[in-house]
Amino acid sequence: MENDILELAARVGKLLETKSLLLATAESCTGGGVSQAITEIPGSTGWFECGFVTYSNASKTEMLDVPAALIAQFGSVSVEVAGAMAEGAVANSNADVAVSTTGIAGPTGAVPGKPVGTVCFGWSKGGTTHTERLVFQGDRHAVREQTVRHALNGLLRFLE
Question: Cα separation of 63 and 74, whole Å?
Answer without folding.
Answer: 19
